[in-house]
Amino acid sequence: MDELLNTLPCGVVSFTDEGTITLANATLCSLLGYPAGELDGKRFEILLTVPGRIFVQTHLFPMLKLRGKASEIFLLFRAQDGTEVGTLVNAVRRERGGAFANDCVLMEVRERRKYEDELLNARRKAEALAVTLAARTEEMHRAIVIADEANQAKTRFLTTMSHELRTPLNAIGGYVQLIELGIHGPVTDAQRTALDRVNRSQRHLLRLINDILNTARIEAGRVEYLLEDVSLADVVASVIPMVDPQMNTAGLTLKSSVPEKIVARADREKVQQVLINLLTNAIKFTLRGGHVRIGAGYDEAGTRVRVMVTDSGIGIPPANLTSIFEPFVQVQVERSQRLEGTGLGLAISRDLARAMGGDLTVESELGAGSTFIFELPRA
């Protein structure tokens, strides 16, 4: 206990009602210029600048009359060399062993002021930091508002431009068909080949614009969803004829194994769109002679249905398994440069899946193919 008292940053002194000092810690002795331990047994009044008997000095501590309660007062102590030391004293009178003792804890005023100044400075710094944080929060809020407004402007621009571009493209497609039908006169083989190229380019541009328009609609929250019980076997059966020509042209085999009992709670049209995107993506990245399979089942908890589109294609590098779902991202650049597309199909598909309460993920091994897992709530 003595060791603890001697390490305190404040002075501690205890004396009897008769005025005999029974304890004075090293901090007090150092403050008043006494060697450690020298004050033990001495009279308390030698430490005070006001002369008189101890009971007179005791009256300077009115709080000592209130047993068990302490109060703080200012008091001048006299150091060994006669100089005065201003202190703030907390004192209390307690009964110990049938006698009363007066315990005092004191701190030099300048030390107290130093600590108060430090606390005040710390408080000012904290208040300044709070003001700075508030200002930065306001700046971040304004930045978010500006970014949101810019995003909305971008969405409006994309929507408007997509509509404006689709109109002439549809007209081009219509005129090409009229020429191919011979409405404006006979068409030679060379002309028919050229018209076919124009027609394919027109359809390609139209698909790109539709992808951009769909992305803009999704970002703007303008896509409506009609959720109902959807038989995945029926949806897959309706999708296969749409992609069969592409499968045959690419020299791929398509197999489907979707049980009739698998029913999801989803928007039938959106499910169809996602599956077409996944199958088209599989065709792009699967070499001739490969295969594409469609399967379905429930997850382990039985609360979600899973449609798996698996291909024997070139696979996806591990570093790209997440980024492929971002807009305008395509992996295997050397190969994708020879393929049509904007890199929006998977981004659109994942957004549609999540909007219906599901998700779209991928498992892949480079050079060994990929499996896209399309999850939806179970009906």
SSE blueprint:
Elements: H1 2-6, E1 11-16, E2 21-24, H2 26-32, H3 54-58, E3 71-78, E4 84-96, E5 99-108, H4 109-180, H5 189-219, E6 228-231, H6 232-250, E7 253-257, E8 263-266, H7 268-284, E9 291-298, E10 304-311, H8 333-336, H9 345-355, E11 359-365, E12 369-377
Parallel strand pairs: 7-9
Antiparallel strand pairs: 1-2, 1-5, 3-4, 4-5, 6-8, 9-10, 10-12, 11-12
Helix pairs in contact: 4-5, 5-9, 6-7, 7-9
The largest sheet is:
5 strands, antiparallel
Count of helical regions:
9
Helicity range: 40-55%
Radius of gyration: 43 Å
Number of domains: 3
The ordered string of helix (H) and strand (E) elements is: HEEHHEEEHHEHEEHEEHHEE
Question: How would you describe this protein?
Answer:
The protein is of the alpha+beta class. Helices cover 45% and strands 23% of the residues. It has 9 helices and 12 strands. α5 crosses α9 (345-355), α6 (232-250) packs parallel to α7 (268-284) and α7 runs antiparallel to α9 (345-355). The two termini are 74 Å apart.
